[in-house]
């Protein structure tokens, strides 16, 4: 089995710790490689390399940086199939979804390459004569990028491409359940021509690599995607630096009595069981109008029973494995909790006996909004139905959680749709579509405890990775005092 290295200052090397760890294929439980268990000394070296490289990189004109990103997009497209197969092998999602994971990185590279010719500031008037005022975008410095395993190519791409186009360098720490995807991705960016030291990759545990990155004085910004618990520790320990947090979700789909139920059914199956429920935008709550509840439950159960569990590389597979054994145990604990709380199990509720980390797609009904299965992020294939009597109750239920990432409403009544858009507390609202489906040129992120107000992707992704510098040019030839030399 191959032992993979970490990248510091353009060289692939072993960790100072001398330790390694394995990453498993969740469908077969076989290891797919051995990886460096990085530590604080590796982080120190990586930060110093990034700091040095930053001084040159920030001076490369942004359109030139964009050309490198465009080359990265071309190389990613050329390697799309092999990367997608690796995504499936390392984290388990079915192959068509893995292709989407890679496509998102291609889209982001192309979009951010174009931003290299914009990076707009604004010009405005001055309150004084012969004075010019404008804003420009400046890089921030060295970034720490910390990512989860569930989108092992797309999420790093959401951070890396805007980070680079804005002129920053970075130290990247991927999740330990998907380090090989991160290594292959960075190798492609190396080939595209990102200069030595601008990107550094350190694999290893969150406590030994992520925490030192977060606390490092020379790192000016952190972009973190992951669980709320770790996100809270990031905020606590980061000190004074820019921090972007993209945390968990407990997303809901409202199905009104006037909805197209077949369309809603497709949306719930895709949102609830796509990626085996392991998306921050997964739909784990279905808030259904009482009038159509029984019928919709029957339709759902019948569709769920037809879902085929298996290795994501097989064409016949609809739902892949969970990421690891802990995830299977955690998912099952929630089945037990749901039953104990009095929710009614309609189907699923068991791990399978086969090799691999498989759990049956599971559906609860008679769930009340305050139950733990309706409040806490499970990150597995468990969906709960919450019956409601009207739209007001549906929206109250939607908002009765501490998260606020994605949401959806199925209705054919425009008044219902706009009332939901206006009143749902979430970063994303879909109408007649599932909770999944973000596009790279629009911002992505959540409200409440899903984040701290930053947004990734779209133009707001540029804002996350750049400073705004205000420039005043006074060409009057005399000292002019704002607020003082202005006549009332
Ligand atoms: P996680 O929080 O366990 O780990 C995320 C990353 O943080 C990993 O690289 C991990 O090694 C690192 N880490 C762990 N402890 C750390 C510490 N003390 N300091 C710094 N880094 C540390 O999350 P996960 O299990 O990899 O991913 C699943 C979670 O991610 C879910 O909660 C999901 O909702 C969330 N997620 C959110 C989004 C979003 O955009 N909002 C997208 C995908 C996933």
Give the % helix. 25-40%
Distance between the termini: 77 Å
Number of domains: 2
Mind summarizing the main beta sheet?
A: 7 strands, mixed
Global mean pLDDT? 97
Number of helices: 15
In the CATH hierarchy, what is the architecture of the largest domain at level 2? 3-Layer(aba) Sandwich
Model regions low in confidence, pLDDT < 50 over at least 5 residues: none
Q: What is Rg?
A: 24 Å
CATH homologous superfamily caption of the largest domain: Aldehyde Dehydrogenase, Chain A, domain 1
Which ligands accompany this protein?
nicotinamide-adenine-dinucleotide
The dominant shape is globular
Q: Can you tell me the CATH topology of the largest domain?
A: Aldehyde Dehydrogenase, Chain A, domain 1
Give the strand order, joined by hyphens, for the main sheet: 14-15-16-13-12-17-18
- Which structural class matches the secondary elements? alpha/beta
CATH class of the largest domain: Alpha Beta
Let me know the number of strands: 19
* Beta fraction: 15-25%
Write the SSE topology:
Blueprint: E1 6-8, E2 11-13, E3 20-24, E4 31-36, H1 40-57, H2 62-78, H3 80-91, H4 95-115, E5 123-124, E6 131-139, E7 142-146, H5 154-165, E8 169-173, H6 179-192, E9 199-201, H7 206-215, E10 221-225, H8 228-237, E11 242-246, E12 251-255, H9 261-273, E13 283-289, H10 290-306, H11 325-341, E14 344-347, E15 362-365, H12 372-375, E16 382-388, H13 391-398, E17 406-410, H14 414-423, E18 428-431, H15 458-464, E19 466-474
Parallel strand pairs: 7-8, 7-10, 8-9, 10-11, 12-13, 12-17, 13-16, 15-16, 17-18
Antiparallel strand pairs: 1-2, 3-4, 5-6, 6-19, 14-15
Helix pairs in contact: 1-7, 2-4, 2-6, 3-4, 3-6, 4-5, 9-10
This protein binds nicotinamide-adenine-dinucleotide (NAD).
Nicotinamide-adenine-dinucleotide binds at residues 146-151, 155, 173, 175-176, 206-207, 210-211, 214, 225-227, 230, 233-234, 246-249, 280, 377, 379, 405, 450.
């Amino acid at each position: 089995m191959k032992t993979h290295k970490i990248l510091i200052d353009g060289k692939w090397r072993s960790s100072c710790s001398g330790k390694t760890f394995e990453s498993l294929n969740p469908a077969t439980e076989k290891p797919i490689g051995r990886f460096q268990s990085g530590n604080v000394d590796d982080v120190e070296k990586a930060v110093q390399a990034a700091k040095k490289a930053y001084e040159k990189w920030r001076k490369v004109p942004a359109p030139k940086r964009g050309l490198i990103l465009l080359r990265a997009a071309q190389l990613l497209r050329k390697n799309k199939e092999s990367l997608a197969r690796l995504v499936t092998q390392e984290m388990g999602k079915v192959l068509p979804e893995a292709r989407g994971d890679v496509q998102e990185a291609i889209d982001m590279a192309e979009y951010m390459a174009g931003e290299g010719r914009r990076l707009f500031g604004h010009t405005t008037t001055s309150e004084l004569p012969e004075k010019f005022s404008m804003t420009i975008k400046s890089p921030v410095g060295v970034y720490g990028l910390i990512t989860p395993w569930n989108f092992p190519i797309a999420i790093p791409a959401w951070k890396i491409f805007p980070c680079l186009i804005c002129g920053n360098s970075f130290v990247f720490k991927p999740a330990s359940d998907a380090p090989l995807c991160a290594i292959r991705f960075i190798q492609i960016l190396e080939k595209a021509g990102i200069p030595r030291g601008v990107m550094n990759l350190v694999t290893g545990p969150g406590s030994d690599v992520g925490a030192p990155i977060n606390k490092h004085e020379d790192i000016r910004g952190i972009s973190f995607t992951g669980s709320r618990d770790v996100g809270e520790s990031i905020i606590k320990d980061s000190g004074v630096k820019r921090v972007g947090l993209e945390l968990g979700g407990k997303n809901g789909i409202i199905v009104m009595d006037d909805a197209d139920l077949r369309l809603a059914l497709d949306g719930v199956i895709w949102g609830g069981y796509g990626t085996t429920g392991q998306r921050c935008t997964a739909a784990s709550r279905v808030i259904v109008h009482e009038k159509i509840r029984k019928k919709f439950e029957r339709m759902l159960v019948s569709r769920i029973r037809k879902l085929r569990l298996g290795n994501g590389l097989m064409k016949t597979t609809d739902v892949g494995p969970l990421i690891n054994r802990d995830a299977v145990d955690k998912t099952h604990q929630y089945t037990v909790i749901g039953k104990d709380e009095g929710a009614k199990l309609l189907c699923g509720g068991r791990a399978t006996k086969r090799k691999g980390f498989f759990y049956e797609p599971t559906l609860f009904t008679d769930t009340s909004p305050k139950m733990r299965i309706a409040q806490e992020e499970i990150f597995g294939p468990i969906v709960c139905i919450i019956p409601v009597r009207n739209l007001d109750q549906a929206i109250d239920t939607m908002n009765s959680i501490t998260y606020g990432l994605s949401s959806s409403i199925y209705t054919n009544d425009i008044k219902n749709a706009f009332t939901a858009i206006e009143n749902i507390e979430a970063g994303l609202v879909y109408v007649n579509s599932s909770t999944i489906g973000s596009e790279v040129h629009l911002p992505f992120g959540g409200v409440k405890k899903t984040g701290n107000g930053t947004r990734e992707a779209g133009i707001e992704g540029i804002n996350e990775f750049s400073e705004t510098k205000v420039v005043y040019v006074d060409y009057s030839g005399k000292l002019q005092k704002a607020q003082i030399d202005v006549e009332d």
